[in-house]
Design goal:
The complex is a heterodimer of chains A (76) and B (206). Chain A has a four-stranded mixed sheet, with helices on one face. With 76 residues, chain A is of the alpha+beta class. In chain A, 30% of the residues lie in helices and 34% in strands. In chain B, helix 3 runs parallel beside helix 6. Classes of the chains: A alpha+beta (76), B alpha/beta (206).
Chain lengths: 76, 206
């Protein structure tokens, strides 16, 4: 699925990746997908926890060279 | 129960009695069920705490405030309502830098000796006469860690609630016009804090 918007949180440390994700997702409509790039060590664990808590769907996390790429579908 | 039931069924002379005994027992049991149901409802209600957390910010150390604001912005990003209560030394962290006010001697001394706002906070360790915080801030910038001021701005944006202990304000001689501009910043007392903490899911003392 193509991402509607993307967020570059590379080089940013906790809690910025999830705080910026939350902010970016506010701008999207339900069902749209946000692509988040980050390289914070806590990113995998935190984005999983964040999605679990907020109910948005984590479509997957891909490891790119030197950073991670998560796709999140906004819940209704 | 089982014995009585069997005895009643076996004994034909007891024939007219069962309905009476059973009815009494049935009434007693259904009353008990209703009682337990009511209790279960009230328990379920009290267990359903609101999705909110409360942080009591007592210190004005930069490191502690960073911890408080990391949790506050993180929780707000997760959809949790957050209340920060600033009390005692913590109140100094919310001062603005250059505000002139008429004060008593003690209030002037406190005002002079306590940090003036977020940019002037000491570290609780390795302060080194103010060198520590400067180095820490530089390092944080290098490492992509949000500064306290950035986190304060994010808190504002995410609707984190800030309340200030009125007693501390009075004791340390701080006046409302000395405090930062923050949406819905309120001055309150222990009852407000306790009420909010008790109905929330978590309270931390920072």
């Amino acid at each position: 699925m193509n991402a509607t918007a993307s967020l570059d949180a590379r080089g940013k440390s906790c809690p910025l990746p999830i705080v910026l994700t939350a902010k970016a997702l506010r701008e999207l409509n339900a069902g749209e997908v946000l692509l988040v790039r980050a390289n914070d060590l806590a990113f995998v664990s935190d984005i999983e926890a964040w999605c679990k808590k907020t109910g948005h769907e984590l479509l997957g996390i891909v490891s790119e060279s030197g950073f991670l790429e998560a796709r999140i579908r906004k819940a209704a | 129960m089982g014995v009585t039931e069997e005895a009643l069924l076996d004994d034909p002379s007891a024939e007219p009695q069962p309905s009476g005994v059973f009815e009494t027992e049935l009434r007693r049991l259904s009353q008990r069920v209703a009682e337990l149901e009511a209790r279960q409802h009230s328990l379920a209600r009290s267990a359903a705490q609101e999705d909110k957390i409360t942080l009591l910010v007592f210190s004005n150390s930069l490191d502690r405030l960073l911890a408080a604001f990391t949790m506050a912005t993180g929780a707000a990003a997760m959809g949790t309502r957050v209340s920060l209560f600033f009390t005692f030394w913590g109140t100094a962290a919310l001062r603005r830098e250059n505000v002139q006010t008429k004060k008593s001697l003690f209030a002037r001394l406190f005002g002079w000796m306590l940090p003036k706002g977020s940019r002037n906070l000491p570290l609780s360790q390795l302060n080194m006469g103010g060198m520590g915080p400067l180095m820490m801030r530089r390092l944080m910038k290098q490492k992509g860690v949000a500064s306290l001021e950035e986190m304060l701005a994010l808190s504002r944006e995410l609707g984190v609630n800030i309340s200030v202990c009125s007693m501390s304000m009075d004791l340390l001689g701080f006046q409302p016009q000395e405090m930062i501009e923050y949406p819905n910043l309120t001055y309150c007392g222990v009852a407000t804090f306790l009420e909010r903490a008790a109905t929330g899911k978590m309270t931390l003392f920072v």
